[in-house]
Amino acid sequence: MGEAYLEGMLLQASLIFALGPQNLFVLESGIRKRHHLTVSFVCFLCDFTLIMMGVAGAATLFNLFPQVKIFVGILGVGFLILYGLGKIRSHGMNFDLNSTQSSSGSLRLAIMSSITFSVINPHAYLDGVVLIGGYSSKFPDLPSRLALGFGASSFSLLWFLTLSMGASILMPLFQDAKRLRFIMGTAGVVLLFLSARLSLDVYIWIQELYPDSVTALSFPWK
User: Which structural domain range is residue 195 located in?
Assistant: First the structure.
């Protein structure tokens, strides 16, 4: 399960390095020191919920219907490749604090805004439920899938705390286009590596479920 936990952290690390609305909001709260620790924790809880939904759902569904496991695995490979290529081709962008929505000092508003930026975001479902949930299908047992989910969630918590508590230090990193391109490119390479690993697992699943078909495709001259 240790390997699954580390793979979950690596997968989430490669997915979360982006200046989406959630990261921008956490950065802003850290710079303004407005309930930044609460914001980080609420964003983590939202990510944790979506990730565990994907992992637990995959564990139940894939055991009952192995064909669905293969289908979702193929989708996961496709998404990982598209995400990876997209990050590698990214030209970067400068972080603009003024582009984020301002928030008041209200704790309740900070919590509601954190939920809004975390949940009302299509990429949150794509990353947590589809990508991480689909990737978890490579592990045959539920404990390993849960370990992958906990690993991904742990990195989310570390990332949000780093953003909020080290916001002023990290600002130059996000304002430098070259550094940002390097970060995005590295994340893209990691995603492509994970897609290759997952594609090998999908091939094995197909071979286990349809051994005759795979043999015929591998040796068409026979």
Answer: 2-218
